[in-house]
Design brief:
single chain; 306 residues; alpha+beta; 11-stranded antiparallel β-sheet; 10 helices; 28% helix; signal
Length: 306
Amino acid sequence: MKRLLEGPAIAATLAHLFAPGIAQAAPEAITCDMVRALPLVEAGSRDAGVTFEETPDGCIVRNLVPFPETGISRWQIGMLDIRGQWEAPENPTDLAHAAPPTALSVKARDIIQIIETDDPVMNYQFRVQQKPIAITLDFDWDPDSGIAHLAELSLAGEVLGRASLALTSRLPGDATIEDWQKADLRVESLRLSLKNRSLVESFLIPPLLATLPRDTDPASLVEAYRQRFTAGVEALTDTLVSEDSKQALTAFAQDFPNPTGTFEAEIRFTEAISPLSALAECHEPPFCLAKLQARYEPTTPWQPGD
């Protein structure tokens, strides 16, 4: 369970460190010196196996272990390619009050988990069973309009499948990374794409289960939320959601927590709204929606002999 709970940590860290914020006077191309100072990289940069390669607009880091002192279980990033424009803070420890890059592309490839115990057989077995995952982050921000486009934040793997999130958000002109951490960004629209193999079961369900009291029956809770979700979808008017989209959302809910195949949803809100405000103010139909489109194409169930 612990290993599964740690799964989303790399993706969350990348998004956390490179969240869109204010633009400073003269952003410049990202360099390896800037990358070395990032918390994600700094802790693991002292390892003898880590290499840094300058590129025209960024830096490529290889064989990085971001959090080397985390016990028997650690993550390793085979290749971390960071490119973009950024006016880095003079003091790397003051990242919270700095302006993140105005444009950024992050590609993390060959991400695997390393297990080091006193049992060499177990270590070897875990190593040969590893299937690498990849994470991609890509966004740009217009300082004049305050609109930030997160073109892609995705997690993909041969066994897991692929999950991708895109959104358009609006930030105040004096925003910082710390403000973004406090959810002081306002989302206008978002797009979710899920090509599921075992992604939901392996990466999404375990963190949710970990938040429940030990005496909770997860199955009954899932059923209650399923019924509430389905009723909410049915309550939406045809001007907000087409009949095809309603059917897709209902079918996805019925298959949860074991959805298969492809699920896509595009959501546009009536106004830019913060995620925390959305939870408090948009929990009943029409959920602050201006438009919702969805598509779900489950795969054919496996049969013996296939």
